Amino acid sequence: MIARKAAPRRWTADLALAVAALIWGATFVVVKDALAEISALYFLTARFVLATLCMLVMFLPALRRTAPGAIWRGLRGGATAGIFLWLGYVLQTLGLKYTSAGNSGFLTGLYIVLVPLISAAAYRRWPQIRELTGVAIAGSGMIVLTVPSLDRNFHINKGDLLTLGCAVAFAFHILVLGYYSQRERFEAVALGQIACAAVLSSISLTIEPPKAAWSSDVIFAIVLTAVFATAVAFALQTWGQQRTTPTRTALLFALEPVFALVTAVLAGGEALTAGAISGGALILVGILAVELKPAARVRHQQ
Fold first, then answer.
1. DSSP E strand boundaries for 120-271
2. Dihedral of the CA atoms 284, 86, 58, 50 (nearest 10)?
3. Which of 211, 176, 203 is nearest to 190 (CA)?
4. What is the value of pTM for the model shown?
5. Taking the CB of residue 153, how many other CB atoms lie within 10 A of it?
6. What distance in Å separates the CA atoms of residue 115 and residue 113, rounded to the nearest whole number?
7. What is the per-residue pLDDT across 71-97, written as a single tens digit (0 to 9) for each?
8. Is the dihedral of CA 225, 78, 199, 99 positive or negative?
9. Measured at the alpha carbon of residue 194, what is the angle toward residues 254 and 243, in degrees to the nearest 5?
10. Tens digit of pLDDT for each residue in 168-196?
11. Which residue, 190, 153, 157, is CA-closest to 78?
12. How buried is residue 146: exposed, middle or buried, by Cβ count under 10 Å (0-12/13-18/19+)?
C-alpha cells in the first residue's frame, strides 16, 4: 500500500521537474536572440521583477491562509537559494564574454555531477547506486552533446573559470532549494528565491548600466521568460523538489539541453547531427536507468 501511494507522488514530482526543463530549453533560442538587443543584467532584472509580481498573484491565496511565521521562514529559505540562483546566472553571463558558447554549455552542465558529490559531502550520505549510474550516463551524454561546439583550442581561461563558478552555484541552488522546499511552504520558498534574484539583479545595474532597444522581440522574450521560464518553471521546481532528491533533480535537468536542441532544430533551422542524437539518447537512457527500476519494483509488489 505504501509503495502504491508513494510512486504517483514521485512520478508527479519528476514530471514537474521535466516540464521545467522543457520550458527552459524551449526558451533558449528566444533569450539568445533578445540578448543581442538588451544588456544581460538589464534583461535579468526585468525578467525577475516581472516574475516576482506573477508569483505574488499565483501564490497570494495560499499565502493568505498561511501563518506569518511560516511565510517568513519560507521567504528566508528561498532568499538563500535565490542568492545561488542569481550568482549562477551572473557568472554564466559574464563567462560568455570570455569563452565560447560550447565551452559555456559544457562547463555549466558539470552541475549535474557536482550535485551528488556536494550532497554526499554535506550530508555524509551517498546517493543510491542507480542514481549515480544515471548521473554518469547522462553526464556522458552532456559531453557528447556539447563537445562538437567546444572551442577547438579549449583551455582554461577567465571565462571558463567564471562558468565553473556558475556550475557550482547552480549545484548549491538545487541543494539549498531542496532543503527548504521539504521543510517550509513551497509557495513562500519559490517566491523568496525569485524576489531575492530580482533585488540582486536590480542592485547589479549599478555595475553594468542598462542598455536596451525596446523591440517587440525583446518585450516578448522578457514576458515569456518571466511568466513561463521563471514564475511557472521555478514554482514547478520548488514544488517538485519537495518530493524527490537533489541528485534526481539534477539528472532530470539534463533534459534542458535536449529540449533546447529540439527547439533549435524545429524553430531555428539548426542541423541535427549524429553527435546531438547520441548525446540526447544517452541523457534519456541515464534518466530511464533511474526511473524505470523503481517503477518495476512497485508493479512487482502489487
1. none
2. -120
3. 176
4. 0.85
5. 7
6. 6
7. 999 999 999 999 999 999 999 888 877
8. negative
9. 50
10. 999 999 999 999 999 999 999 999 999 99
11. 190
12. buried
